[in-house]
Structure formats: structure tokens, C-alpha cells
Write a structure and sequence with these properties.
2 copies of one chain form a homodimer. By secondary structure, the first copy, chain A, is an alpha/beta fold. Chain A has 13 helices and 12 strands. Chain A starts with a helix and ends in a 5-residue tail after the last strand. The first copy, chain A, binds a DNA duplex through α2 and α4. Chains A, B: One of its GO terms (molecular function) is DNA-binding transcription factor activity.
Chain lengths: 331, 331
DNA sequence: TTGTACGCGTTATCAC
DNA sequence: GTGATAACGCGTACAA
């Protein structure tokens, strides 16, 4: 069994209370006493009992990363991986641990909400891309510090969130295509129940409207297969496209294949720009020109905001990061 | 503040002890009493306090997923994503939560070990691909239920582990190339400090030896860049290769590009087989023929074994899963 | 500055 | 079958 405060106190020749003060860095302990206690701590290999501490402080020193979608796609998503890295990096110097909460099956919302309400964690980061989930609204109203990655669709109450400027990112992509002299621009958009899908389409539409150019849109679901269907449909309806903005890299790889099967060359005949700058962006021929989002940074900020809220800060509203166009071979 | 056992007991007109029995499903409670208590629980929205419970039971109802490598690559690795899905699926019906432990920077081993020794979790799953880490040995000897994903290199004590049969998987790939009439086979191997790197190379070497064929090996580091270097070196030294086994998909995508830049066609001139069946396998042209490993299943089994060990089972030794060849366009 | 004593919410061991 | 009651390890008023 691991040693307790009591044993450390006995060895150091002081009381439990004093040891506790040393452990928690109280300023009013004599240097000599501190030294003695610390020696005892090292000698015994003392580690505070988290449960006992949590019981009295009502802090668990752990935060949750919630993925309220049974949709397994989230994991293979490089976005999620980046968020994870950022969050864990920000938490590292802290005493807080990261608890992963994944909704195993659709409709198991209550279990999740109960857990969060049960005081098992000090706060939660919600990583959800799909809107319309009525869970989001409930999550937002929990009496618990919460931060959303991406502004949650359909949630009316003010919440703290961190996101990338998808509209601006899409604009950059489309404007880049224009700068290359392309005028017949189409887009493979994402699902309209995700902010990323909506906003990136909006960015495209805004530029097209400003330029007085006609739109050409097909919808995919952010998967390779969906992207393929959408690209086929798009080129079927608009065979003369000379530029294409695809709402994410995975669909863009499919578009590349479709274009080549149609006997057209990238980027000579059709220039293609993706979004994400994920691993797949460099596995294609030619490599993808794409819009990079600072995912790790997003995760870091998410954790920082949450920790601040846990410590009483009153932060609400979105915090927006900008994107960067990464130019490779496809456009 | 959330309600306590005491309050539930008061409302139900019974004692704390009885409520506790109901909550924990003790068989010896009168049905009527159970009903009354359950009603009170629902009415109050009672949720057991984890800290208080952990304090007395000495069980935390949480297990750790440990990534003892500051190497950020792990996250973008589809392998990790699959493991995560499997583990969390297996944990879902349980009361156990998943705590993610990531070593923020090299050499911070002590912090990790202290945490694990501190009784904050009931057990741990170690996801480590690199060997040579002296942490692994220490982890293996912790007085805590532990399971390794992949047999830990350099660890002498017997441990529980779950892995895929990398040697057999590589054999399948190479034998498939042979069955296609290819005889000049090369391989882009992974790093020799990872079991996956070593074993996949071994599989290739075994088949070549059996067939009395000469080896052609170049080493990469499982990244696209590393794969490119290795492929260039390999074709420089062996320009006449007609078949290539690459130890992972990411490097295989780079090999595809190199081969095409060399003016040779895939699969007509050079047939290529990868390993992993990750997302990138379908983003290339042609799509990759590759060896799929059941990552989700691996994760599930990892969690199952850990839970069994926590409950007292004495499981040690490796558990091996088999792979499957997925035939696409590259071979 | 340090020690004493109580309470945090549960589970477990007794009696009844 | 059910109810007292003693731990579990720690933080913190309060007293000294």
C-alpha cells in the first residue's frame, strides 16, 4: 500500500496538517520543517491520494474530452488527432488529467450527461462537428465549465468556443484559384449539418457572388467515397470547370482521381485546392494545394480556456483562428 | 451540490447502508425496498460520488491509455485511432473511464511512473511502438495490471500483450507478389527499433530465403519523406525490381510517386504492396494493395485483457491476431 | 508557525 | 433484510 500523510508526518516528526501544508505549498511553514518533510516524502515515495483529496476539495483535477458522436470517423480524422495533441500539451504542466468520453452508441446521451453532472470532472471540452444534435444544447447548459471546438450548431445560449475561420479559409482558396486565371470554379462542399461544411461553402459563394461568377456546387460527406460521387456529379453537370475547391482533403483526393479518369490533367486543365492539410495531402500525385488549419494550437487554446473557466474566469463567445494556404502541385 | 446517499436514504425512509446496497445491486434487499430507493434516486437525480467510493474501495474505475512517446506521430497514426476506438468500445459497457496519459517530453518518465504507481488508475494499456525505451521495462514491473500493444522490445519479464502477426502479414504480401510472377522483389523496411519494423522485414527475408531469391532492402522511418528516400535508394541500387513490399502505407504512397517519377508504371512494371490499410491506401492512383490489421479488434482485446487482469486473472504472454491482404490496384 | 479535530460520501463489518 | 458505525486519506477552521 502506498504511504499516507500520516506516515510521512510520523517520519518527519510533525503533524499531518504540516505535511499537508508542505505538499500544497503553503507559504507559512518554516524552511527547516519543509526540508524535513520533503526528505520524508522522498524517502517514503509519498504520492497524494487523489480520491481523498477530491473528496474534500471537490476538485477532481481531471477534465473530459467529449466526443458525442458514435460516428467512428472522428478518430481517423487528423483534426481530432491534432486537437488531442494540443490539449494534452496544454494539460501536461498542470496537475489535470485528460479523461476521454466517447459516446459508444447513438442515443446514449443520458449516460454522458449524468457522468458530466456527477462531478467526476472539473470541466469538459466538446469536440463535435455535427450540429442538430440536441445533446449539444443540453451540454451547453450543464452547470460545469465547458468549451466547444467549433461553434455548436443550433445552440442558442452563449458558449465558449474555439474555431478556425472556415469562411475566410475557403475565400483564400477560391481567390487563389482566381489569381491563377481560373474562372469556371466549382466546389465539392461538405455536409450542411456541420459548421465546417456550411462555412466553407459560404466562403466559396461569397467570392463567386463578388466576382459575378456562376456557382457550381455538389455535396459530399467528407469521405473519399462521398467525394467521388460528388465530383462525378459536378463534372457531369459542369464539364468545363477549370478550378475546383474541395471542402476537405480526403474528398479532394477522390476528386483528383475522378478528374484524371475523365482524361483531364491537374493542375493544367483543372486546378484543385483542398482543406485541412492532413496526411493525405502529400500522398497524392500531384500533391495537394490546401488550406491548413492550426489544429494543435486549437487544442491548446481549448484547454487553456477550459482551465481558466475552471478557475473562475467568465469566458464566453467564439475565439477564431486563421488559416494558411499551403501551395503544392495541384493548383 | 449533488445529492448524497444520506439524502436518498432520508427520502426513501431507509438507512444509508440500504441505499448503498441497492446502488451496488446487492441481492439481499426486499423488492419493495429496492423500488422505494430507486424512486428516491430518480427523484433526486442521485449519482454516486466517485471520489468517496474510490477512497474506500481502492478502485478508481478508470484505466489509463499510456503513450510513452513524445513523438507526436503516434496521434496521426491510424493505428492509434483504431486502438482508441476498440478500447473505448470495450470500456463503454463498463463503469471504467479512459484516462489518456501522454508523455509530454522525452525524459519525463518519472512523472508517468509516479502517477501510475500512485493508484490513480486500476490498470494501464501501453501503446508503444518504439523499443529501447528503458521506460518499458519499468512499466512492465509496475505493481499494477498492465497490457502492452505490441510485444515490448527489450523487456525481459513476461508481460501480457496483444499484437498482430507482422511476420505472417509480410509473408502474405511477398508471397502474393511471387504468385503474380514477380521475382525481383525489394522491400522498404521500417525502423529496426520497432517490432513492426523488425517483424515485417523478417517476413520478407524468410520468403526470399525459402525461394532462394536475393534480398533488396532499404530502410525508412514510416514517414512519407523517409519512404521517398528509401525508395530512391532502393531503385538506385536495384533498377530492375519488378515487385516491392513496403512496410507501411504512408511510405508506400511515397514509393508509388518515386516509381512513377522513374518512368515506370504500377502495377505493370512494378507491383507494390503496403501494410496497414490506412486511409491513405485509397487516396493514391492506383489504390494500394495492402495488408490490413484488425486495429479496432486489437484495441478491444487489449481492454478486455486489462479488465480481466484487474479482476484478478493472471494473463501473461502475447496474444496474436492475423492480418488480411486487401487487393486493390497497385499489385 | 504548528497541532487538534472534524467532515467530505462511500463501503464494509458488525449486530439486530 | 436492515441499521448503526467505523474506516478510507486528506484539507482546513480553529485553537494553541
Amino acid at each position: 500500500m502506498s504511504p499516507t500523510l500520516e506516515q510521512v508526518a510520523a517520519l518527519a516528526g510533525v503533524s499531518r496538517a504540516t505535511v499537508s501544508r508542505v505538499v500544497n505549498g503553503s507559504p507559512k511553514v518554516l524552511p527547516d520543517t519543509v526540508a524535513a518533510v520533503e526528505r520524508a516524502i522522498v524517502e517514503l515515495g509519498y504520492v497524494p491520494n487523489r480520491a481523498a483529496r477530491a473528496l474534500v476539495t471537490r476538485r477532481t483535477d481531471s477534465v473530459a474530452l467529449v466526443v458525442p458522436e458514435p460516428d467512428s470517423r472522428v478518430f481517423s480524422d487528423p483534426f481530432f488527432a491534432g486537437i488531442l495533441r494540443g490539449v494534452s500539451a496544454a494539460l501536461a504542466p498542470t496537475s489535470s488529467q485528460l479523461v476521454l468520453l466517447i459516446e459508444p452508441s447513438a442515443g446514449d446521451d443520458q449516460r454522458l450527461l449524468r457522468y458530466l453532472r456527477g462531478g467526476h470532472v472539473d470541466g469538459a471540452i466538446i469536440v463535435s462537428h455535427h450540429g442538430r444534435d440536441n445533446v449539444l444544447q443540453e451540454l451547453a447548459q450543464l452547470p460545469l465549465p465547458i468549451v466547444f471546438s467549433a461553434r455548436p450548431l443550433g445552440v442558442e445560449v452563449p458558449v465558449a468556443s474555439v474555431d478556425v475561420d472556415n469562411v475566410a479559409g475557403a475565400r483564400t482558396a477560391v481567390e487563389y484559384l482566381l489569381s491563377k486565371g481560373r474562372r469556371k470554379l466549382g466546389t465539392v462542399a461538405g455536409p450542411v449539418d456541420m459548421t465546417a461544411g456550411i462555412d466553407r461553402l459560404t466562403g466559396y459563394q461569397l467570392v463567386m457572388a463578388e466576382e459575378g461568377l456562376p456557382e457550381a456546387v455538389a455535396y459530399g460527406d467528407f469521405t473519399a467515397d462521398g467525394g467521388e460521387q460528388a465530383a462525378l456529379k459536378l463534372f457531369d453537370e459542369h464539364p468545363d470547370l477549370d478550378g475546383l475547391f474541395v471542402a476537405n482533403d480526403l474528398m479532394a483526393t477522390a476528386a483528383l482521381r475522378v478528374i484524371s479518369q475523365l482524361g483531364r490533367r491537374v493542375p493544367q486543365d483543372v486546378a484543385v485546392v483542398g482543406f485541412d492539410d492532413s496526411v493525405v495531402a502529400t500522398t497524392t500525385t500531384p500533391k495537394l494545394t490546401t488550406v491548413r488549419q492550426p489544429v494543435v494550437q486549437l487544442g491548446t487554446r481549448l484547454a487553456e480556456i477550459l482551465l481558466a473557466k475552471i478557475n473562475g474566469a467568465d469566458l464566453t463567445g467564439p475565439e477564431i483562428f486563421s488559416t494558411e494556404l499551403i501551395i503544392r502541385g495541384s493548383a
